[in-house]
Design a protein that fits this description.
Keywords: ATP-binding, Cell cycle, Cell division, Nucleotide-binding. This protein is of the alpha/beta class. It has helices spanning 3-8, 21-26, 49-63, 98-108, 118-128, 130-137, 153-168, 191-197, 230-242, 252-259, 267-270, 288-303, 329-344, and strands at residues 87-92, 113-117, 142-148, 172-177, 205-210, 247-251, 276-282, 308-312. Helix content is 39%, strand content 13%.
Length: 351
Amino acid sequence: MTTGAASALGHLVDRNPSITGAEIASELVPPPQFEHASFESYRPDHDFPSQQAALDKLHEFANGWRGQRNPGGFFSRSRKPKSELPGVYLDGGFGVGKTHLLAALWHVAPGPKYFGTFIEYTALVGALGYAPAVELLRGSRLLCIDEFELDDPGDTMLMTRFLGELMAGGTRVAATSNTPPNALGEGRFAAADFLREIHGLAANFETLRIDGLDYRRRDTEGHAEAMADDAAVEHAASALAGRGHRVTLDRFDALIAHLATVHPSKYIKLIEGTEVIALTGVHELTDQNAALRLVAFIDRVYDAEVPIVASGTPLDAVFGGGMLDGGYRKKYQRSMSRMIALTTGELPPHD
């Protein structure tokens, strides 16, 4: 490795970013691949009429930002007419355009408005504290939640309370669930689970079911690519840095340890400005906390569309110790799909 190239390489483990509540909120926007998503650019599959029906319903939802409250009390079980409901839940399988529609709704909504994954919102609460997080988002006209997690009771209860306070103040909410790409039909429609888990808020949501096939028809049997050895990764990183790319090079163990010292809300700042992430010595993880931190990190890397070159165990095979049989299976499967995309040079849009 040449001295010049070595000096151009950065290391994620050397970064200790700070982030303010305002900065976290400023990052709550659709990922780059949905920067221009619109209702007009959504192409319903005519073989599945529910796609056009969902599109029409979202047009209706976007037409009136009334945020009216239920006269019987916010947690009343008496339902309002669906046209007045302040919440909408997009229920469908992978690749039917849920995230596209969610982003399209965000783009036409008046501000202040926010768009983030379930994990990003729980990270916001974790970083700021519950009351400051509510205060930060209070008064927003629309809150979009992509990939609402249904596998962590504590976080689900937290988010239910969080949304309850915001919706009581007039905020409208649109959400999708975290159906993984390779679940082979398992959990493809999660509306019943979603409505059950959000308890008193259920009466405030209209469910829009979106049937269909993955429009990419992507092969889900691929695997993350791994280079021959650490030397190959170091050579590739050095070559890229030598050509002016902003590259970070880290040992996998060191990165995993560093992620434990950085709050997940700061992961977006951790990779800021990075064009390629190089990792050596990737191996199987058996500690669930470490695995979940890696999932959160990969989500931010994927949203930022930063490719990864790595050696050792292929990244989609790092979740060991029976993790794929446990309660966080969906999270791991989603992360595996994203790691395949990040290491193979394929950066497909979210579903």
